[in-house]
Amino acid sequence: MSNIFRELLKKVGSGNHTGENLTRAEAASATKMMLLGEATPAQIGAFLIAHRIKRPTGEELAGMLDAYEELGPLLQNINSARPVIVLGIPYDGRSRTAPISPVTALLLACAGQSVVMHGGDRLPTKYGIPLVEIWQKLGVDWTALPLEKTQQVFEKTGIGFVYTPRHFPLTNSIWEYRDQLGKRPPFATMELIWCPYAGDAHVIAGFVHPPTEGMFQQALTLRGVSKFTLVKGLEGSCDLPRDRTAIIGLSAPLAPQQEGLTAIERLLLAPRDYNFTTKNVPLETTEQLVADMQAVLSGKPCELMQTALWNGGFYLWRSGICSDMQAGITKAEELFSNGAVAAKLQELTQVVNSVSKVVYQAV
Q1: What is the pLDDT, as a whole number, of residue 360?
Q2: In sequence order, what are the residues at sequence separation of 6 or more whose Cβ sits closer than 8 angstroms to the Cβ of residue 70?
Q3: Which domains does the chain show, CATH number per domain?
Q4: What pLDDT is stored for residue 357 in this prediction?
Q5: What is the 3-state secondary structure (H, E, C) of the chain?
């Protein structure tokens, strides 16, 4: 048993009156001891559920991210005119609304904006459809690539995917606890703002509960991340909703800091103001989702196309490619209709398949 870990567990698990928050260094130490198996299973399970009840602080999230940076994978810096966008999507996937982020990534890469995504397979607690499965159905299999081959794909296409079961296997044991506990631990919050990229990055993360935005703001400020976008998105993702006004926090690093935090500029976007229907596309079957995505990539009008244009327009503007939201929507429509985004998917598929052949031949 780890006596050091036991002291950290006592701090977070002592209840409302005597419990304490961890320092950034303590949170980093606790995370490393759990990932490396230096804490016992009983200690790890107790810590995860106690910390969920307590709720993490931004400082604790920063410490967890420190541990991930020390132990985890990093795609290396590439030559990019803009900060690389890192899309933080819930690892336990989507179950109610149709995700659009793979299409958004293709659109951005097509327009010259590099994107990094990360995640694993179907995981607890939701066991929703994960990004890697959508990519596979679109013809792109990230799961067989070692990190150095993923780096090659990233450099050639502007899209990279850190597949955690292969690239960060230390996290695999944590998923077992998450399944047994039946609740998302603080790691589930932290992973949304994890940045597995070594260069200048623009972190984009979704959230559900408003207090999470403040935690993200503090953690990212402590980590020195000056450019971030926080979206009250669909099922905690970066996808903008269409059934309500999108509530978005934009980092404003040049604005005066408040209490040492990077300032946030509030943005409210109403779909009706841009002539979009105000309903989300439901997630039915994986096959239907992929068919709808293929229709979008072919430039065919469909309900999911509205979601693609709504999100694509925002992210083209936010990345600096387009001057405003309406220009972004117009640009997205053009790139879908002229086949440029479909061509980017074809390029990505060919590069991944080519790199995969080299991996198999080496084996």
Answers
A1: 54
A2: 28, 32
A3: 3-54 (no CATH), 79-358 (3.40.1030.10)
A4: 79
A5: CCHHHHHHHHHHCCHHHHCCCCCHHHHHHHHHHHHCCCCCHHHHHHHHHHHHHHCCCHHHHHHHHHHHHHHCCCECCCCCCCCEEEEECCCCCECCECCCHHHHHHHHHHCCCCEEEEECCCCCCCCCECHHHHHHHCCCCCCCCCHHHHHHHHHHHCEEEEEHHHHCHHHHHHHHHHHHHCCCCHHHHHHHHCCCECCCEEEEEECCCHHHHHHHHHHHHHCCCCCEEEECCHHHCCCCCCCCCEEEEEEECCCCCECCECEEEEEEECHHHHCCCCCCCECCCHHHHHHHHHHHHCCCCCHHHHHHHHHHHHHHHHCCCCCCHHHHHHHHHHHHHCCHHHHHHHHHHHHHHHHHHHHHHHC
Whole-number Cα distances in Å, 325 to 76, 239, 307, 311, 338: 31, 15, 14, 10, 20
Q: Block means of pLDDT (10 residues each) for the chain, length 363 residues?
A: 90 87 98 96 95 95 98 97 96 96 98 98 95 98 98 98 97 91 92 97 96 97 96 97 97 82 96 95 97 97 97 98 98 98 98 84 55
> What order do you get walking across the sheet with 159-163 strand by strand?
159-163, 115-119, 84-88, 201-206, 228-231, 246-252, 263-269
How high is the pLDDT of residue 257? Answer: 78
Beta strand 84-88 pairing with 115-119: parallel
Q: Are 99 and 280 in contact (CB under 8 A)?
A: no
pLDDT for residue 258: 73
Residue 218 confidence (pLDDT):
97
What pLDDT shows up at residue 1? 64
29, 23, 21: which is closest to 51 by C-alpha? 21
The two tokens of residue 77 are 């810096």
Nearest Cα neighbor of 227 from 250, 247, 205 is 250
